[in-house]
């Protein structure tokens, strides 16, 4: 009797796991709502204006960031990192970039003691504006960096 119950439980677990894999790989699955649009000229143009208004003063007009961006200042803050190919922005998937911009680094990494001068933009910019500015940033990256970033955005198997 015990063997039968264990076999049924195992069969149910395998069926559930198989269903989950099929659903996750389904070509009909909806794309992430956080997916950036670096090839959409209208989105990128809107993002350029938002970047200029809200981001360029710290991250630079050419995405170059602030000098010595890996060393904390006297207040324990890291300078604004570059968002060009020399930085680490492209190492993150679209959803993470969106969440960091909207919610802040401390919330995303689960460390409320994390110090940063970066504003939390959730109450400043709409989701569409955040996606636009991040799309503009991504549109500035060289083709090989965008290709590498596309791999970061691949669904985890």
Salient structural properties:
Cytochrome Bc1 Complex, Chain D, domain 2; disordered N terminus; mainly alpha; 157 residues
What does this structure look like?
The chain has 157 residues and is an all-alpha fold. It folds into 2 domains: 1-30; 34-152, Orthogonal Bundle (Cytochrome Bc1 Complex, Chain D, domain 2). The protein has 7 helices and no strands. The longest helix has 24 residues, at 2-25. The radius of gyration is 20 Å and the shape is globular. Residues 2-30 have low confidence and may be disordered.
Topology:
Elements: H1 2-25, H2 41-54, H3 56-59, H4 94-103, H5 105-109, H6 127-139, H7 143-152
Helix pairs in contact: 2-6, 4-6
Briefly say what this structure is.
This protein is an all-alpha fold.
Strand percent estimate: under 5%
Percent of residues in helices comes to 40-55%
Principal-axis shape equals globular
> What is the total tally of β strands?
0
CATH class of the largest domain: Mainly Alpha
| CATH-derived architecture of the largest domain | Orthogonal Bundle
Distance between the amino and carboxyl termini:
36 Å
List the uncertain runs.
2-30
Q: Summarize the helix and strand pattern as letters.
A: HHHHHHH
The biggest sheet amounts to: none
What structural class is derived from the secondary structure elements?
A: mainly alpha
The CATH homologous superfamily of the largest domain is named: Cytochrome c-like domain
The Cα radius of gyration reads 20 Å
SS field, number of helical segments: 7
Q: Quickly count the domains.
A: 2
User: Any idea of the CATH topology of the largest domain?
Assistant: Cytochrome Bc1 Complex, Chain D, domain 2
Mean pLDDT: 83
